[in-house]
Each structure stands twice: as C-alpha cells, then as structure tokens.
Amino acid sequence: MITFALAVALLSAPAPLQGPATERPIILDGRFDDWAGVRPVLIDPPDARLGAIDIGAVKIVDDPGFVHLLVELGRTVNLQRLDGTLEILFDADGDAATGATVEGLKGIDLIVTFSPPDARNPQRPGMGVGARRWVDRAWRPISPYALGIAFAPTAASNRAEIRFGRGLPADAPLFVGDRIGGKLIHRDAAGAIVDETDSFAFRFSSRPAPTVPPDPEVDPIRRAPGTALRVMTWNVERGAMFSNPEPFARVLRALEPDVILFQELLEEHRAEQVAGWLAQHAGEGGSPWHAVVGSGGGQLRTAVATRHPAQAVPELDRASWTDERGRRRDVRLAAAEVMIPGAAAATEETAPRLPVLVFSVHLKCCGGARTEEELTRLEEVQAIRYAYRTVVQGGRFAGVVLGGDLNLVGSFEPLEELIEGIDIDGTNKAIGVAPKLCGRMHATWSDDGQPFTPGQLDFVLYGSAALRQLGGFALDTRDLSPRWLEHHGLDAADTAASDHWPVVVDLGWRRLSSTSTPR
Fold first, then answer.
1. Contact at 8 Å (CB) between 453 and 459?
2. Residue 189 confidence (pLDDT)
3. What is the pTM of this model?
C-alpha cells in the first residue's frame, strides 16, 4: 500500500476514497448542483482567520476525460487574482516512489498554482494559473493548457470547480494510473503558509480515454425550431476579421445569424466598412446588411449588424460617465433598433415586424473583484442603464437584447446590474444559456499564450415578456466532429482566429398579445 509522509507527524495517508460511479458528468459551469451527493475526500476546519482564503471541503470526481475538484474557499475571491497563492500538490501517478518530496509529502510530480507571483516583477500581485511538473529530478514549468486545466466560475466565488485533463500531455501523460494523492496549501504574498489541508488519496472509478468531439445525428449548430431571432456576439480581437477574413467568413456562413454583436473593432472601422465586409464574406443573396458602430470607446469599438431593417438609436450612440478625476469617459457601446418578424406568415416578407432594441457592449477588461478595473465596469454599467432608461419609455420596443464581452473577471455585480436594468415590461429578463458544444463546460474565451485559463466572459441578455430562448451555444470549432465540420465547410481551427468564441442564442416570440406589442 502506498503511504504519504506528512510533515512533522509522518502519518500514513488515508485509504483512497473510491470515485463515485455516475452517469451524470460534471459540467464546468460554476453552478455546483452536479456535485450534490459527492462525498468529500477531505474537510479542512476553519483555521485561517487571516488568510485570503480558508480551505474547507474538497471533493473529487473522475471520468475518462477529466479529473474534477470542487474546493470550498471560505471567502469570495478570484482564484486568478488572489492575495497570495493557492497550491494544489499532486502525486499524479499515485506512486510515492516517483516525484519529489514537497512540504513533507512524498511522490509529488505536479504543482498547480493559482495567482503565481510574477517572476520578472515580484513586487506585482500574482495572477493567472501556473503549473510545474517534476521531470528528470527538477521542477519544470508547463502551460496549464497543456494539462487541460480550467475552472469556474471566472468571477469571484466562495467555491471553485477545477478540472484537469487525463492523459495529458501526450508525451508524458498524467492522471492515467488508478489513483492520485496530494494536498492543498494557501500561502500569503510573502510565501508563508497560511492554511494547508491534510493529505488526500483518491482511487479512480474510470479508465482514461481520449476525448473526442461528439458526433450527433442532428446538426449541432442548427437553428432551433421556431427561432425568430438568432443573435451572435463575437469579440473579433482587434478587428482580426479584416486582416484575416477567411475563418470569420466560414463561421458566419455556417451560423447564419440574424443579428451580430461585434466587439473589438478598431476606431477606423466605420459602419459602411462593416456592412461591406459582411456583404462580401457572410453569404451571398438575401437582404443587404445594415451596421451601426458606436461612437464611444476610443481605439476599440462595438457594432450591431443585421440583414433585418435597422436604424441607429441616437440617444444611445454614446453612453458616458465621469471618473474620479472629473474626466468624461465613454462606454464601448453600440445600439440599434432592429425590426424582427413578429409572427408566423407565409413568408418573412409578409410577417408583421416588431422593434427590438439591440446593444453590443464591451466592458473594461482585467482586474479582480476589488480593483480599479472592477469599479470602472460598474460605472460603465450604470451609464448603460441610465442611457437605456431614456429610450424605453412609452412602449417603443417589443423586446431588448444586450450582449457582448462583459469581462466578468471580478465580481458578478456588473452582470447582475445589467440584468436588473434590462427591462421592458417588468415581467421577464434572462441570461441566454450558451454552453460549449462539447457539453462539458461554459466558457467563451481561451488563449494558450496567456497565464489565464478558459473562462466565461461573453453573455447575451434579453428582456420582455414576449421573448424566450429556444437554443444556444458557444462555438469552438474543435468541438465539431469531422462530419459536421465538412458539412458546414469549417476548419477545426477557425474559431481560434480570435481569443473569444462566438456565442449564439436563438430567441423566439411567446404568444404575442396587445400587452407585448408596442403601442
């Protein structure tokens, strides 16, 4: 039997807890309901009163593709912007005879660190996720992406679900044995241990197997039946669709959105250029494209584009707020009134049309829950809400849709404030649900050149008693099987043309009545 030497006490490890056999996989969405009934591998008592976190219960679930951890943090924090670090020490092959001895624990061959310090500038706060593995009797850095590391939620929370790919990296795979062991350690900014757990041991209930894209019989990116409005939001990473048009064009032709919400266009990208690009690249035929580009935002701009009749909303061309220095700041915002077919008819041309207010929003990036960047996001949201209230009086719109890159890396408060503000008649407002097509996580951003792991930054919100969601997904083309890639003329690398994935939400009308039709 394998034993793990504990610091000072030199106690043997607990018997490995057998992973639960379950047909319901863990979905990395930050909601935690799928963890109900899973027994903790350890429970650390409240004992870090002064720590940035106070580790509590830790649960583990395995399946052929991943190892999942649920960690109670004791505080509401951003794992990638901690005051100090959270380390997870793994004996990833379950063999104490291999690996190094770390903090009294033998056999450690992988250390994952949340908010690692900046090696080039130790005075700066740590951020992101780092990883080291024991190779040839030395610790060597390895990208979290090479290990399939991801966690949720991206915004601050008192719990986090973290997953690791099994069988990665391919040349020296981890988590492929029959068990693992380890412990968790919280250090302060000076590197001193503030909190640490006992060791854990866990026996897998499944054997590792490669993860492959699902190959459903029904087209996974088809338009949901009854859809009146397919909305797509896409941050195109500094206008990359103009410099590298082919992958963006293939994705747009495959998805066929009715309304596109763009973020990160450049200042020189005018409305006529956006409409012209779409006319050239986003499919031939059909009605001409209309585009509205917001005037505010500095070097980066947002836009709304559609084939439906549309016009700019002058009152929302520029939403502003005043910072603490008295400077006038603009929100990256574009808004359009889009006329959407409102009822079934023989043809779309004969259907009555209803006006929907559509926003494309790009909030301030970066920071954590209690940072200057988060305060800016909250100011931007208040500016949007104020501008919105000026145009929704008198029943002008049948519904409202707001989407874009909300950069939800601090707290949930900006999202909550936007949801509260999106209101036509006080009866219905909701977040569009858009999981990745793999069905195993909710994420909209990924960049293996960054120290941050994939996260959910992009959202679609909608309001009005008349609208309901019929479908939705975030498209990472790597999640499509070869059959469906070929069917849609896509390449598996197409959505990697931007660091954000396109998010699609299919909306339909509820039964329309005089109360849901604008006066």
1. no
2. 93
3. 0.92
